[in-house]
């Protein structure tokens, strides 16, 4: 058990540092083209910070642990919105551009609708569902790239040192090394997370919905905190919404396309699967709390962040009492 805990922690560190370096390299490249911050956050940064979830969930699905693939994706959406975004909003509320935010929000709730219909009707995610989710991801990327092309300004000015060959090589190196660390960290996290869950007698889906989901969401947390400290609130919000969309369409889509699985049932509430009674409704609730004020009022509020933190605390408390 001790070895598993140590390796689990090493996996988390690899994910954090790998995600950090990947994002740094990707953002440096994106900024050369003068792309708006919220769009950068909803695309390049979101893909980078979602890579841990992609690696963990696809690895879990291929190893026959669909409950971790499911729990990690749904748990990461809840964690991103109700913990990471909530903390940043509670600390420093900011204004947002509703027009730029509208596209990722529409795509998220469209994907969530598909996800909910499948979950509540058949409870089985077939390979065709995975392909459909990946198709939504592709459509989102095409539309967003077009938005970027129409909204992008002239490339930012760089000094010779920043724009030279060494800088480009450094950015590429950050991307490659970051991706490798993410892959290694995901492997360590899945393998040892399963061992820890079994050793403690905790259902694997609960571990995935809390510890692993939080661990793979740490790149989003690092990005959010760094963005706030540098005064880039739009980048932080775009990253959270984009990452949550990718958790549904890319993380779940890739996992299901590779290895279809049934909705896990490790606990029940009122005689019904807790995944359907608690997890999916909470996911939809926290995303509504996060996005509706931003779309209607064009800003985020401290009370909004505090409310989402309370929802997350209640969610975690209920998970460990089931």
3D structure, described in words:
With 322 residues, the chain is an all-alpha fold. It has a single domain (2-319), classed as NCX, central ion-binding region (A middle domain of Talin 1). The chain is built from twelve helices and four strands, in the order H-H-H-H-E-H-H-H-H-H-H-E-E-E-H-H. The strands form two sheets. It has a two-stranded antiparallel ribbon with strand order 1-2. Strands 3-4 form a two-stranded antiparallel sheet. Strand 3 (268-269) and strand 4 form a beta hairpin. Helix 4 packs antiparallel against helix 5 (127-151) and helix 4 (98-121) runs antiparallel to helix 11. The chain is globular. It starts with a helix and ends with a helix. Residues 154-166 have low confidence and may be disordered.
Write the SSE topology:
Layout: H1 2-31, H2 37-62, H3 66-91, H4 98-121, E1 124-125, H5 127-151, H6 160-163, H7 165-200, H8 204-216, H9 218-229, H10 233-258, E2 261-262, E3 268-269, E4 272-273, H11 274-297, H12 302-319
Antiparallel strand pairs: 1-2, 3-4
Radius of gyration: 19 Å
> What is the number of beta strands?
4
* SS class: mainly alpha
**Count of spatially separate domains:** 1
Spans of 5+ residues with little confidence (pLDDT < 50)? Answer: 154-166
Shape: globular
Topology as H/E string? HHHHEHHHHHHEEEHH
Task: Determine the N-to-C terminus distance.
Answer: 24 Å
Helix coverage percent? over 70%
The main pleated sheet reads as: 2 strands, antiparallel
The overall pLDDT, averaged over residues, is: 78
The total of helices stands at 12
CATH class: Mainly Alpha
CATH topology: A middle domain of Talin 1
- CATH H level, superfamily name: NCX, central ion-binding region
CATH architecture: Up-down Bundle
Strand content range? under 5%
Largest beta sheet: strand ordering: 1-2
């Amino acid at each position: 058990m001790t070895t598993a805990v140590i390796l689990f922690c090493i996996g988390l560190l690899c994910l954090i540092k790998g995600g950090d370096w990947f994002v740094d390299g990707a953002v440096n490249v994106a900024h050369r083209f003068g792309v708006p911050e919220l769009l950068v956050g909803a695309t390049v940064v979101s893909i980078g910070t979602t890579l841990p979830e992609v690696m963990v969930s696809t690895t879990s699905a291929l190893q026959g642990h669909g409950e971790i693939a499911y729990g990690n994706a749904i748990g990461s959406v809840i964690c991103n919105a109700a913990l990471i975004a909530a903390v940043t909003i509670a600390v420093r509320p900011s204004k947002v551009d509703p027009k730029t935010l509208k596209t990722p929000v529409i795509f998220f709730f469209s994907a969530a609708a598909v996800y909910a219909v499948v979950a509540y009707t058949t409870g089985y995610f077939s390979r065709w569902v995975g392909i459909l989710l990946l198709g939504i991801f592709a459509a989102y990327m095409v539309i967003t790239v077009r938005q970027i092309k129409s909204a992008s300004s002239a490339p930012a000015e760089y000094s010779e040192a920043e724009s030279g060959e060494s800088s480009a090589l450094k950015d590429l190196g950050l991307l490659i090394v970051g991706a490798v660390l993410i892959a290694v960290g995901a492997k360590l996290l899945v393998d040892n997370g399963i061992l820890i869950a079994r050793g403690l007698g905790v259902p694997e889906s609960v571990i995935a919905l809390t510890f692993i989901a939080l661990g793979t969401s740490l790149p989003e947390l690092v990005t959010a905190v760094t963005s706030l400290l540098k005064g880039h609130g739009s980048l932080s919000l775009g990253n959270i919404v984009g990452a949550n969309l990718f958790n549904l369409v890319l993380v779940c889509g890739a996992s299901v396309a590779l290895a279809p699985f049934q909705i896990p049932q490790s606990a029940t509430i009122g005689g019904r699967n807790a995944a359907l009674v608690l997890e999916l409704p909470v996911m939809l609730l926290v995303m509504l709390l996060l996005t509706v004020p931003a779309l209607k009022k064009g800003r985020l509020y401290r009370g909004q962040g505090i409310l989402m933190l309370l929802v997350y605390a209640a969610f975690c408390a209920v998970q460990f009492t089931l």
